[in-house]
Request: fold
Amino acid sequence: MSDKKQIETEAIRQQITRSAHGEHTSAMYVTSSFVFDDAEDMRASFAEEKEKNIYSRFSNPNNTEFVDKVVSMEGAESGYAFASGMAAIFSTFGALLSSGDHILSARSVFGSTHALFTKYLPKWQIETTYFNIDEVATIASLIKPNTKIIYAETPTNPGLDVLDLEFLGEIAKKHGILLVIDNCFATPYLQQPIKYGADIVVHSATKLMDGQGRVLGGVAVGRSDLIREIYLFSRNTGPSLSPFNAWILSKSLETLAVRVDKHCENALAVAEYLENHDEVNQVRYPFLKSHPQYEIAKKQMKKGGNIVSFEVKGGTAGGRNFLDKIKMCSLSANLGDTRTIITHPASSTHSKLSVEERLGVGISDGLIRVSVGLENISDIIEDISQALN
Ligand SMILES: *Cc1c(COP(=O)(O)O)cnc(C)c1O
Reply:
């Protein structure tokens, strides 16, 4: 796009064609199908000789608007929207992999992605090998002849490891392997993996993209030849995003930059507060100087994101006790909401992992994950402080 504008502007000004009513905010196209003018129009639409909406499992104007925004924010060629983040991730694998292929993935991935790797993809003889954060530098030695995808989230959940995207991009390119990045924790406002060589970027739009805890959604963007395959897979298997949710998500993107700026400001303040607290063993936040990959985070991220993790003293009991004392913040499974959300991964999101698996991805018994919201920072810190003391 020659007249491409800055990210904030693209997120606001990209808009589908107005209807005859001249609405300022895009209309909502809650329709399952679209009509054709005549037999020739119908033939040409199905033959893809013209860009026309046919059926909302394939495409819908609201989905197009949402996707177009993410495509331009991520600097991608094309994209497709899904009913959830997991639908985007599964469809990416379903479209791009065949029986006998191998995935090389960072060990610390979202719980359901881990389930895909260990329980479902093996049904189709697709195997996954994990690499640890300290193996990134030697990851080339883990590549097999059938390795098709290198997969990673950065920052990771909830350990907040930061993986070097530039390095991963170079390795993937050198070996002719696709690099797929889950950019959910950073959002395209903070980090654009395609710049560093990612072929596909996936998102759970449920998180910071919606940012208000209302809808589920997902999106995959990247190289247009790959997105074409992902689109065809989805068109035939049906995990498409509903137009209503697409409309909400497109509106949400208009405020993504201002929300994420404030989220990051609050999160850094929480991290700095916790770092000096006696009841806290260790604080993880990508933009704290004490973070082991601080330099990499600074290189590839605009700000540190909205997630802070820390270890309370006293193990599992200490972690659960902290949750029970929280008054204002929510105990909930979502993240990236306006409301601050606190979880204890060892007894909830990651309880199905063995102790070794948990420790392998940095989840100790006392680890607490805070998704820092947009409430006034003094109220957030006050709640955390009274629960710790
Ligand atoms: C939530 C999440 C997902 C899954 O997204 P859903 O919208 O819940 O399906 C995938 N990756 C990461 C990093 C997430 O946080």
Observations:
- The CA atoms of residues 134 and 265 lie 29 Å apart.
- The radius of gyration is 21 Å.
- The domain at 256-388 is CATH 3.90.1150.10 (Aspartate Aminotransferase, domain 1).
- Residues 256-275 form the longest helix (20 residues).
